[in-house]
Amino acid sequence: MAVVGPGVIGTTVAAALHEAGRTPHLYGRRAREHLELRVEERRILVPGPVQTDPAQAKEPVDLVFLAVKATQIEAASPWLAALCSPQTVVYVLQNGVEQRAMPAPYIAGGQVIPSVVWFPAEAKPDGSVRLRRDARLTLPDTSGSRLVLEALRATRCAVELATDFTSVAWRKLLQNAVAGLIVLTRRRSGMYGRTDLADREAGRALEWDIRNGIVQRRGQAHGIPTPISDVVVPLIAAASDGPG
C-alpha cells in the first residue's frame, strides 16, 4: 500500500494503517523521517521516510491512497504513473464530486474509488496532525471498495458503504462550499475553512472550482438557478488563481 500526499488526511490514514500493522509506503513533496498523529495525549509515529522522487517507487502497488488536494493532482501524476498498474485500486481522499474523473488521465487503467472524508483534523506548526474526534470515511457500495474496507478493518478510521453515494458526496460538497465565504471574509467558523484560509494567506491555489465552481457549472447544465454561486464564484476566483 502507498499514501501519496502525507498531509492532514494522508497522515491520519497512514497512522490508522500503521497502528494496525499495515504501515504504508509514503510519498510526497517534502522529505520527512516520519509522520506524527496526535490523538488526545497520544502520539502515533508513522515510520518513513517520505520519499520525494518518483523513481524511488520500485514497482506498482495494489492500493494507493491519493490524499493530495484536487489542485495538486497533475503534480502528483509522476507518482501515480510509478505506483499504478491496471490492477491497482486508487482510493481518492479529496473534496468534491469529480474524484473519479480528475485523476483518471494519470492512472494506468486502474480502478478509481471516490470517498467522502469526515476527518476533524488539523495541521500543527510543528508538522504534526491533531485528530480531534473519530475519523470516518464513506465509500460507494461497490466491489472495488471492499479492498479499502479490508485495508482499514479494525483501525481507528471507520469505513461505511453507501448505496446512494452520490447524494452523500453532494451533501458534503455543499457543506464544504461554505469555505468559499470564509475565504472571502477571512473569518473562520469552527473547523470550517481553516485550510482554505491558510492556503489563501500563503498564496497557494484554492479548491474553489471543485467546491464552488462545480455547483454553478452543474446548475447551468441542468437548468437550475444558482444565484449565490453566481455571485460567490467570480469573487473567489478573483481572490485565488482563477479568471476575473
Automatic annotation (TrEMBL):
<keyword id="KW-0521">NADP</keyword>
<dbReference type="InterPro" id="IPR013328">
    <property type="entry name" value="6PGD_dom2"/>
</dbReference>
<dbReference type="Pfam" id="PF02558">
    <property type="entry name" value="ApbA"/>
</dbReference>
<dbReference type="InterPro" id="IPR008927">
    <property type="entry name" value="6-PGluconate_DH-like_C_sf"/>
</dbReference>
<dbReference type="GO" id="GO:0005737">
    <property type="term" value="C:cytoplasm"/>
</dbReference>
<protein>
    <submittedName>
        <fullName>Ketopantoate reductase family protein</fullName>
    </submittedName>
</protein>
<dbReference type="InterPro" id="IPR050838">
    <property type="entry name" value="Ketopantoate_reductase"/>
</dbReference>
<keyword id="KW-0560">Oxidoreductase</keyword>
<feature type="domain" description="Ketopantoate reductase N-terminal">
    <location>
        <begin position="2"/>
        <end position="142"/>
    </location>
</feature>
<dbReference type="GO" id="GO:0050661">
    <property type="term" value="F:NADP binding"/>
</dbReference>
<dbReference type="InterPro" id="IPR036291">
    <property type="entry name" value="NAD(P)-bd_dom_sf"/>
</dbReference>
<dbReference type="GO" id="GO:0008677">
    <property type="term" value="F:2-dehydropantoate 2-reductase activity"/>
</dbReference>
<dbReference type="InterPro" id="IPR013332">
    <property type="entry name" value="KPR_N"/>
</dbReference>
